[in-house]
Amino acid sequence: IAGGRVEYADSALVRAVRHGRVLVVDEADKAPTNVTSVLRTLLDTGSMWLSDGRKIVPPGTVPESDKEIVCHPEFRTIFLANRPGFPFLGNDFYAVMGDLLSCHAVDNPDPASELALLKQYGPDVSEDILLKLIDSFSELRAMSDA
């Protein structure tokens, strides 16, 4: 809503596709499988129908109408997802999308790095409390990995 009027704006996906930006999808394992299936089609074929009747078409395509959005050749996606199973309980994102993606596991930081990160987010929080947080989360991680 702008100036009391409803205005249409392209989604982050459409803007990223159009301008060759990186689209970051966080918590992809929590997305419904019908959503990941649609994104899979875009990554696999370079095309995707949008709900408003427009269509994203692969790079290099000569658009046949203003309803076609040519995917920029530098469009990229980054999906952030938890590993399948307990304690995250999301969908098995890797089973649906894993063959199209380069998957990289990122471990939790070591305690010294975690302390440095937490100090940046909470510069006024005492180091004693931050260390207790680190110990608590370390214990929780150990329990979930057991």
Structure description:
About 40% of the residues lie in helices and about 10% in strands. The strands form two sheets. The chain has a three-stranded mixed beta sheet. Strand 2 and strand 3 form a beta hairpin. Helix 4 crosses helix 5. The longest helix is centred in the last third of the chain and has 19 residues.
Order of strands across the biggest sheet?
2-3-4
Query: What is the distance, rounded to the nearest whole angstrom, between the alpha carbons of the first and last residues?
Result: 49 Å
Strand residue content:
5-15%
Overall radius of gyration: 21 Å
Total DSSP helices: 5
**What is the chain-wise order of helices and strands?**
HEHEEEEHHH
* Weakly predicted, low-confidence segments: none
Biggest sheet layout: 3 strands, mixed
- What proportion of the residues is helical, as a percent range? 25-40%
The residue-averaged pLDDT reads 89
- The number of strands is 5
Shape estimate: elongated
Structural class comes to: alpha/beta
Question: What's the gist of this structure?
Answer:
The protein contains 5 helices and 5 strands. With 146 residues, it is α/β, with parallel strands linked by helices.
